[in-house]
Structure formats: structure tokens, C-alpha cells
Fold:
Amino acid sequence: MESKRNKDAENGLQVLTIITIMWLIGFFYWSRNGTILGYDAGLLPMLCCSSVNVLLTIVFIASWIFVRKENRIKDHLEIHFKTSNSVSSDEIATRFRMKKSRASRTIIMWFTESKIQADYDSKTGVFKLKEIEPTPTSPGKDCEDL
Structure:
């Protein structure tokens, strides 16, 4: 259900997360006595490098979790709109344990990416698909009679 671009982004972040976790473990292992491969760097540079490694690991883990959740929401919306013509931001917020404003932004982003037009009712928090009026594809006899 997910688009290839979204799935590739999720997989790429997963790989980066695994690489940074491995790097973090290796860095702590090789620098446990204040040296890296015989180079005595001192306490302050080791502390700085360790902090940067921890921050990068946290950023990649958080990004991967965020993208994975977004992809699950997009999948749910795609399946949901095959059976229904509306979705509530409250329903998405409770189902995926997020704030209503974030759920609304996610739904709007999905509509934009999928090029589907919808109306938003701010009082109820419901997104409804716009009714598309059929237009004649080519003028024929029916159009000439009018």
C-alpha cells in the first residue's frame, strides 16, 4: 500500500539507525580507556565525540520511528477511503495515539500527496471527499440538444 518513496525513506532511516547504533557501541568499546587505537585523545575530546555519537543515534532512531508511524497512518487512510468518503481527525488521533493537530496535518499531507481533494469541517474535525461532478468528455448529440 505504501508508495515506494515512503518505504525507501523508512528503510534508509532504519539502515542509518542500525549503523549509528553499531558505531556507538564500537566507539564506546574502543575508547573505554580514553584512547582510540593507541592515540591518547584526552578526556574532553572523548566526551565530545561520545556526545555527538549519542545525539546522532537519538536523531536517527526518532526519525525512523516518526517515518514508520507516518507510513502506517497513510496506509490506514488509503484503505479507509476505499470503503468510506470521510475520516475524522479525532479517530486518527485516538487510533495512532497522537494530538489532533498532528493528525489533521498528516491527513492534509496525505491528501496533497495523493492529489485527492477534500473539504475540512473545523467544527467536527471531519475530512470529506469533494464530490466531483461528471463532465462530458466530448460534445455529442446529448450536448447539442440542450
Summary: Residues 43-83 form the longest helix (41 residues). The chain has a mean pLDDT of 79. The first strand starts at residue 35 and ends at 36.
